[in-house]
Amino acid sequence: METQAWTDFCSVLERRIGAQNMEIWVRSGVLKPDLVSGNGVRLKAESKYSYDWIRDNLLPDIETSWAESAGRPVNVELTWDGAPQAVVEAQPVRSKRSTNHLDRAMTFDNFVVGKCNEFANAAANAVADAPGQAHNPLFIYGGAGLGKTHLMHAIGNRVAQRSGGQGVFYCTGQQFFDGMVRAFQNRTIQEYRERFRTEVDVLLLDDVQFIAGRDRTEEEVFYVFEMMRAEGKQIVIAADEPPQEIGKLEPRLRTRFSCGLIADVKPPDVETMMAILATKAQAMRLDVPQDVQMVVAQRIRNSVRELEGVLNRLSALHAFYGRPITMSFIHERMGDILPPEAPPPSADQIIQRVADHYHIRPGDIKGDRRPANIAYPRQLAMYLTRSVCKLSFPEIGRIFERDNSTVQYACKKVGVEMKKDPNVRAEVDLLEKIVRGLV
Ligand code: ADP
Ligand code: MG
């Protein structure tokens, strides 16, 4: 049942959960729409296993994406193929969020700090410890999947912990808009506004770019903003751009949003990405060795959400195949996350690089002079030409102007010495990196 609603939903969901998750859980047909009606949708997973996984990892994103693509809140029910009907009817699965809309899984404790986010993290901590006093408003901006929403929930959770859950309210620009439209329809706009004044001490308004250009919503946000600030209440705003660059935003909101502290989050460097990966892997009880961490962190540079997508996929593959996560497992099952292999160097490049390394001329390696300081590098160059370029002995012989048996002898000798002497092995390993242009 592939409706337009489903297609729209998929494109929003992909932005949230990343292409990797989308591929493995949705496009592959694991999760399908079962029933789409005016007031809700039912999605069906192909098995109980995938149902559990999707419920635990993707449900909040699925709910938000339906709401975003439909332009209103949608009741999402998740089930699986073969689920007992009664259970599904009686227990529609809801997200784990509480009524203040805080996601308790996003805290300062599990937020990894690096150069990319240390300023925003410090500002968020200061606000969480002294709401309304430190920086008001705090405006956090940056690209998708870099931790803005995480920081907002972290602030909210710390405040809620002190207040027993009272006085904190998280919503996105879209949810603010939805609530406002509903309030207009029900003629309760006065109560809607009042709630912010009387019930909310810390307002966390996420993805505020959504309201830009929606005049009526901007007016309401302005009103709520002024009212809350007048009473010394804390406002935290997040957006994908700084206030000055959000297109179509009303000038007076631009000014208000800029009058506190503006902090950005940037894409993490490799070290921070590795630290985030290690933290998340540990939380998922997933054993990811260092070399795999390095490869993944180097590949995924622009979004922590994308990194989570890769980890989720790793976790699913690991559970499915019951094999430890190693580089060879990655090669076999997730080759697409590996960098494309560089083409091997040519025999002439190998000769050139070996000659440079030993401070001799390439012509010496190819010629038939026999001093010891040249014979050894020549043998190494032959060995590398065979192991790196995979050329046959006669082909190598032609390049080095030597007969077949000399080449065979050289390659065999280097192989034997590498086995016997760790220094030779280290030297050859280093040379291989040099000729491949890796060092
Ligand atoms: P944004 O709101 O900037 O688009 P999110 O806050 O939703 O991004 O982050 C996307 C995902 O990445 C979330 O699951 C979040 O927990 C995680 N994440 C982002 N930055 C970090 C970080 N520094 N440490 C731990 N998790 C992070
Ligand atoms: Mg966000």
Structural features:
439 residues, alpha/beta, five-stranded parallel β-sheet, three-stranded mixed β-sheet, 8 strands, elongated
Strand content: 5-15%
**Ligands:** adenosine-5'-diphosphate, magnesium ion
Q: Note the quaternary state here.
A: single chain
How many E-type strands? Answer: 8
- Backbone structural class: alpha/beta
Radius of gyration: 30 Å
User: Based on CA inertia axes, which overall geometry fits?
Assistant: elongated
How far the N terminus sits from the C terminus, by CA atoms, comes to 53 Å
- Give the H and E element order: HEEHHEHHEHEHHEHEHEHHHHHHHHHH
Query: What helical percentage do the residues reach?
Result: 55-70%
The averaged pLDDT comes out at 89
Largest sheet: 5 strands, parallel
Number of helices: 20
* Adjacency order of strands in the biggest sheet: 5-6-7-4-8
Q: Extract low-pLDDT stretches.
A: 86-96
Word description of this protein:
The chain has helices spanning 4-27, 48-57, 59-70, 85-90, 118-129, 148-163, 173-185, 189-199, 215-230, 251-258, 270-283, 290-299, 304-321, 327-333, 347-357, 362-366, 372-389, 393-400, 404-420, 422-435; strands spanning 31-37, 40-45, 75-80, 138-142, 168-172, 202-206, 234-239, 261-265. The protein contains 20 helices and 8 strands. It has a 5-stranded parallel β-sheet with strand order 5-6-7-4-8, with helices on both faces. Helix 9 links the parallel strand 6 and strand 7. The model is unreliable at 86-96 (pLDDT under 50). 57% of the residues lie in helices and 10% in strands. The chain is of the alpha/beta class. Helix 1 runs antiparallel to helix 3 and helix 1 packs across helix 13. The two termini are 53 Å apart. Bound molecules: adenosine-5'-diphosphate and magnesium ion. Adenosine-5'-diphosphate (ADP) binds next to helix 6 and helix 13.
